[in-house]
Specification:
Belongs to the small heat shock protein (HSP20) family. The chain has helices spanning 64-89, 99-111, and strands at residues 5-7, 9-11, 114-116, 123-130, 139-144, 147-158, 161-172, 183-186, 191-197. It is of the alpha+beta class and 214 residues long. A five-stranded mixed sheet has the order 2-8-9-4-3. The chain has a four-stranded antiparallel sheet with strand order 1-5-6-7, with no helix packed on it.
Amino acid sequence: MSLPRQVPVTMEPSRMDFSDPFFREPTLSSFRDPAVYTTRDPYIHQSLVRDPIRDVSSKSFFNPERQLSTMDTELQRMATEMRRMFCDMQHLMPADSNPDNWRIKENFYLDNPVRQDQNSGQRFFRLQFDVRQFKPEEIFVKTIGNQLTVHAIHDDDQEGKSVHREYNRQYVLPKDLNPELLVSKLNREGVLTIEAPLPITDTYRDKLIPIKHE
C-alpha cells in the first residue's frame, strides 16, 4: 500500500517587468507649426512671411498623401504596440469570473491531461483547478498511490456570521506517471496547475513510414 504524499503548493512569482518602455512616463514633444503665419506689422516685410490660408499649394502646409501615409504608419505602430501589450499582460488578467465556464475548462483538462511540447516533443501531464476562493494555506494537494486529491477548505466566523466553503477534486493518475515528479503552482488569479513530465515511450516516437511506388 502506497503512503500518502503531500504535494507542496508554490506561488508563481510575478513576471511583470516594470523596465518595459511601455510603463515609462511618456514625454511630450514640442509642437512646431510648419507654416509661418502672416503678420500685419508694418515693420516686417510681407515677402518674409506667408499666409497659410492663401498659400494652400505649399507642400509643407497641405499634403494629403503625406498626411495619410503618416496616419497609416502611426495606426500600424499603435496596433503593434497594443498586440505586444496584450501578450505581455495576458498572464495578469483575472481569471474567468463565471464559475460554470471554469467548470467546463476543468472538465476539459481532466479529460485531456496529456500535452506535448511542440519544440522538444516532450510529453507532460497537466491539470488546472479554479481555487480562487481559497487562500494558499487552505489548499492541499496529495497523492495516495496513483490517486491525486485536491482539497481546499475555508471557514470564517465574524460578526455572528459563519461561512464554510469546501472544494474537492480527485483524479486517477496515468500508470506511466511517477507521482514523485508532480509539482503544483498557484498563480495570483487563483488557478492551481499540477504537472509532471511523462516518460518517452516508443509508442509516441516519430516513425518514418516508407512510401511504396506502384
